[in-house]
Design goal:
Layout: H1 3-25, E1 31-34, E2 39-52, E3 55-68, E4 76-84, E5 89-92
Antiparallel strand pairs: 1-2, 1-5, 2-3, 3-4
């Protein structure tokens, strides 16, 4: 196996591990939030449209957050604020019974 195959295999294993972590984490969160750049799981979401000199943008405050990003060392954070000029999708997750 050459180094490109090994790198592809390593990346595939990391993506699978991240997906498995996401699947497990989704059970304890209330919301799924998606922006143009990444996805989040959170238990609190506040979306505030803001009119600025360049037009409208969204200030999204998330609390009790898990960030879907493979390169992050700590994906769990207590709060994050996102500013976006593009669409922000917020979905309430179905509670487990």
């Amino acid at each position: 196996m050459d180094s490109i195959d090994e790198l592809d295999m390593f990346e595939a294993e990391r993506r699978l591990a991240l997906y498995n972590e996401y699947r497990d984490a989704a059970r304890v969160f209330t919301y799924y939030i998606e922006t143009e750049l990444r996805a989040y799981l959170a238990n609190g979401v506040d979306v505030e449209p803001v009119t600025g000199p360049g037009g409208i943008y969204f200030k999204v405050t998330l609390t009790d957050v898990w960030i879907y990003e493979a390169e992050r060392l700590n994906r769990f954070v207590p709060e994050t604020i996102i500013y976006s000029v593009n669409d922000v999708h917020v979905q309430m997750l179905k509670a487990e019974e």
